[in-house]
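Review box. Two proteins, two foldings.
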Amino acid sequence: MGLAKNGGFLLLLMAFVGLATAANVYQVGESAGWTVIGNVDYGKWAASKIFKVNDTLLFKYDPQHHNVLQVSRSDFHSCNATAPIATYSTGNDSFFIRAPGHYFFFCGFLGHCQAGQKVDIRVPKITGPAGVPTGSPIQPPQASPDGSIEPSPSSSESILCCNKTWLLLVFLMSEYLL
């Protein structure tokens, strides 16, 4: 009986850890990729996803006709490509989501952002039951005027999230083993 109980607990623990660490790779625009052709609605595409920390965004495109600029919120809304946070131009670029917040991207080629080749990726802080976000998103690190990156205030939030996860795990272990 003890072995069966411990085996069941091990299975529960493995499932819990698997759910807590699962990450996804999202190809931006799905099969259409990153383009202005075909009227891809990137806002609708992003709204249909639940992005989380450790997910990866994959931008696939023809580098002769497109690129990817990560920009600030204000530059995103005005399609201002003069001061990107980061520039990607290989045609097969990955962006790893390291922290909760909003991430803004658009194509820096003339007229493409205005034509809708832009996407706002929202990553909630923590998700509660049924994927309901708790709290408001945190902004990603922003470049300061001297070009250095200011640290994100999310590190304490991440620690809090992990502490809650481990607390839940310890509670489940104690309930199951006793």
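Next protein.
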Amino acid sequence: TLSLQGEDSEEHEQVNSDDSLGPGSGSGHTNSLSPNRTVPRRCQRHNSPSGCREEPEQEYKKLYDDLQVENEKLKEQLQEAQLQLTQIKLELERVTQRQERYAERPALLELERFERRALERKAAELEEELKALSDLKADNQRLKDENAALIRVISKLSK
């Protein structure tokens, strides 16, 4: 077992040195996702170097596919969040407009009260004028009657 562990550590070092070749080596992306990643034991046990290369390629493909699925999920979540944000903005705008209307409402009520008072004063003035007009009509009628009576008296006196 001692010699087997020594071989494993040599292969592990070789894999790490292969991973550290950089982004151009094709394994840089995966290395950046899991820097302490080691090659599976079954690859380490294979004697042929081609067997070890095929399994990491399959693992990279699987990792790539997993990342693609995760990216799609994240894109969907982002779209949902953007939709919710848009809906919340619209609701906020509606609430703001409603509050502005309510804020204007006391001013409108005060204006309505002022207008109502003005109309009530005008109505009171018109009632007074109407009363004065009826008094004037009554006086006018009385004067007409007196004038007619005077005309009759003058006409009797002149005969």
